[in-house]
Amino acid sequence: MKDFGASSDLPVVAIVGRPNVGKSTLVNRFIGRRATIVEEMPGVTRDRKSLDAEWNGRRFIVLDTGGWIDTDEPLAHQVSLQAERAIREADVLVMVVDVMVGVLEQDSAIARILQRAGKPVLLVVNKVDDEKRELEIWTASSLGLGVPFPVSAIHGRGSGDVLDAVVAELPPEPEVPDAGGPDDHLFAIAIVGRPNVGKSTLFNRIVGDERSVVHDMP
User: Fold this and answer.
1) Does residue 123 sit in the same domain as residue 206?
2) 120 and 48: one domain?
3) In what side-by-side order are the strands of the sheet with 92-98?
4) Mean pLDDT by 10 residues, the chain (218 residues)
């Protein structure tokens, strides 16, 4: 079930992939601002984050997810479950792989999950920072997700082509509701505090959903 507050009637695009392939950098390109933390260290993104985006007049929600890996380690497993939840909620799926590393078994496992989802899937090969790397993107064709898009999320190269394809796959726009609806008076609440005091647990209780990963590790 989708529940994204005032934007709940918008279509949803989930960005998925294994850790450290540049998902959050691509999300920042999609939304046109730096709203997610980007680091070289894998595993920085843990929760699935919903962010408003617009391209060529079409509004939609982008779900930024933590890196999916097949593991029994408790925290990484919770992060992977959040990514799988995003796949179920989304209307369009964007899988990101790293051209510098190539296709790994984890990538193949994610591709199989996306194929079973029965939704439109776009394959992005990230970190194609120059033309010399473009020929290497075709190794990703082995994933069976169609023609890959060469992208350099950090430089913005190719991101517009992906957004064009995303918008083309979105479901039809719903009729515009009458003005003066109940969402006119929504307000924002920030939950702040030092690490490991229970902010994520409180957030989950308020929204009535397991939206944030809860773990003892700060």
Assistant:
1) no
2) yes
3) 49-55, 58-64, 12-16, 92-98, 121-126, 149-150
4) 57 94 92 59 54 94 82 64 86 97 95 95 96 93 97 95 97 72 62 68 66 53
- d(CA 215, CA 201) in angstroms, rounded, equals 9
Count of residues in the chain: 218
Three-state secondary-structure class, residue 23? helix
Q: Where are the beta strands (DSSP E) in 1-48?
A: 12-16
Nearest to 147 by CA among 156, 138, 155, 135: 138
The whole domain housing 200 covers 187-218
Assess whether 216 and 148 both reside in one domain. no
Contact 55, 84 (CB under 8 A): no
pLDDT computed for residue 78 by the predictor: 72
Strand duo 49-55 + 121-126: pairing: unpaired
Which DSSP helix (H) or strand (E) runs through 204?
A: helix 199-207
